[in-house]
């Protein structure tokens, strides 16, 4: 089955090359969606010989993922899509474990879980923020998961078509879980490793950004 | 009395600005008509405030001023709700547009 990795990227110039080369051996094609970066992310990605799309206005990670998904399905004939981060937090070879479950038709969407897998140097504050997110997910989406804000996912073509991301920014992760329930998609979790560095800690979910996610979700439910 | 005069002067100024914007074709006929009704209504209320008290009493509110305050809060809240919906719609449309451009550019290369 044709597998395509989508890497949404914003100002990941120093890291994008490693991320691409990490995932590239494990999929058939890679799409990088540059979300209007201020640095040389686009050029750095283009030099790796992968598909690169560029948003001319910054729209957020969720929007970049959806752009990549549309391109993967309509232009590359993708049958399995893998979401992979550009910042080096994820391990490329672990994509195989997620893809296998889709190929065996055991799930429509496979969600990576650092709490089933492993974390490297995760700060305590991040741990508590993520655990709080678990509670929020149970209340809003009704899903019982071990890791609700993990960007490492594999989707079948059916799931990719069903999950149309409308929340452009950080809340897309919660929206995806919401849609899994609404669209009745078969889902499974799979252990993955998440590595934390000083760079990535600045970009991840902070406690204050949690309020932005909640606000976006509530706004989507009432005004969407 | 002074407040009523100031209110009338402000309403006249607002009518002048509204008509000016319409002449420059910056706003629609519907928009202009709505706001002219509002400003003229404000002049009427400022000139005969006692009459508004009668209407307020019918609605179970003590004074005309209180009635207009409550009405203003409700109308402004609804207006904000409508604006938020429209802003969300524009936000989504912008994302779709940016997406389309990104894919078209990639297809060219």
Short recap of the structure:
By secondary structure, chain A is an alpha/beta fold. Chain A has helices spanning 16-23, 41-46, 61-75, 95-103, 124-140, 157-162, 172-182, 198-203, 207-223, and strands at 3-9, 29-34, 51-54, 80-83, 109-120, 153-156, 187-195. Chain B has two domains: 1-47; 63-109.
Shape of chain B: elongated
- Name the helix and strand elements of chain B from N-terminus to C-terminus, one letter apiece: HHHH
**Biggest sheet record of chain A:** 7 strands, mixed
| First and last CA, distance of chain B | 72 Å
Total number of domains of chain A: 1
Task: Bin the strand percentage of chain A.
Answer: 15-25%
Main beta-sheet strand count, sense and barrel state of chain B = none
Structural class of chain A: alpha/beta
* Structure classification of chain B: mainly alpha
What general form of chain A does the structure show? globular
Order of helices and strands of chain A: EHEHEHEHEHEHHEHH
Description of the structure:
- The complex is a heterodimer of chains A (224) and B (109).
- Chain A has 224 residues and is α/β, with parallel strands linked by helices.
- Chain A has a single domain, classed as Spore Coat Polysaccharide Biosynthesis Protein SpsA, Chain A (Alpha-Beta Complex), CATH 3.90.550.10.
- Chain A contains nine helices and seven strands.
- In chain A, strand 1, helix 1 and strand 2 (29-34) form a beta-alpha-beta unit.
- The radius of gyration of chain A is 16 Å and the shape is globular.
- The N and C termini of chain B lie far apart (72 Å).
- In chain B, 6% of the residues are buried.
- Chain B is mainly alpha-helical and 109 residues long.
- Chain B contains four helices and no strands.
- Chain B is elongated, with a radius of gyration of 22 Å.
- Chain B has two domains: 1-47; 63-109.
- Classes of the chains: A alpha/beta (224), B mainly alpha (109).
- Chains A and B meet through strand 3 and helix 3 of A and helix 4 of B.
């Amino acid at each position: 089955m044709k597998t395509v990795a989508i890497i949404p990227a914003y100002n990941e110039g120093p890291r994008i090359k490693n991320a691409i080369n990490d995932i590239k051996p494990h999929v058939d094609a890679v799409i990088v969606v540059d979300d209007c970066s201020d640095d040389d992310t686009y050029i750095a990605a283009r030099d790796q010989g992968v598909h690169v799309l560029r948003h001319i206005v910054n729209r957020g990670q969720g929007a970049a993922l959806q752009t990549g998904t549309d391109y993967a399905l309509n232009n590359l004939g993708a049958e399995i899509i893998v979401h992979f981060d550009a910042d080096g937090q994820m391990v490329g070879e672990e994509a195989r474990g997620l893809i296998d479950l889709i190929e065996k038709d055991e799930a429509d969407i496979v969600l990576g879980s650092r709490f089933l897998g492993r974390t490297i140097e995760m700060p305590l504050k991040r741990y508590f923020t993520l655990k709080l997110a678990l509670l929020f997910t149970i209340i809003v989406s009704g899903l019982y998961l071990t890791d609700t804000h993990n960007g490492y996912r594999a989707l079948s073509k059916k799931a990719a078509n069903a999950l149309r991301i409308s929340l452009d920014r950080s809340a897309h992760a919660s929206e995806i879980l919401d849609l899994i329930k609404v669209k009745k998609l078969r889902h499974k979790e799979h252990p993955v490793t998440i590595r934390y560095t000083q760079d990535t800690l600045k970009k991840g979910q902070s406690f204050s950004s949690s309020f932005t996610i909640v606000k976006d979700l509530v706004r989507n439910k009432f005004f969407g | 009395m002074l407040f009523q005069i100031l209110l009338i002067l402000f309403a006249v100024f607002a009518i002048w600005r509204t008509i000016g914007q319409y002449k420059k074709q910056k706003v629609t006929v519907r928009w202009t008509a709505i706001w002219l009704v509002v400003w003229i209504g404000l002049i009427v209320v400022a000139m005969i405030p006692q009459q508004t008290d009668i209407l307020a009493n019918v609605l179970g509110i003590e004074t005309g001023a209180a009635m207009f305050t409550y009405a203003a809060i409700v109308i402004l809240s609804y207006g904000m709700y409508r604006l938020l919906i429209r802003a969300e719609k524009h936000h989504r449309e912008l994302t779709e547009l940016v997406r389309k451009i990104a894919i078209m550019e990639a297809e060219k290369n």
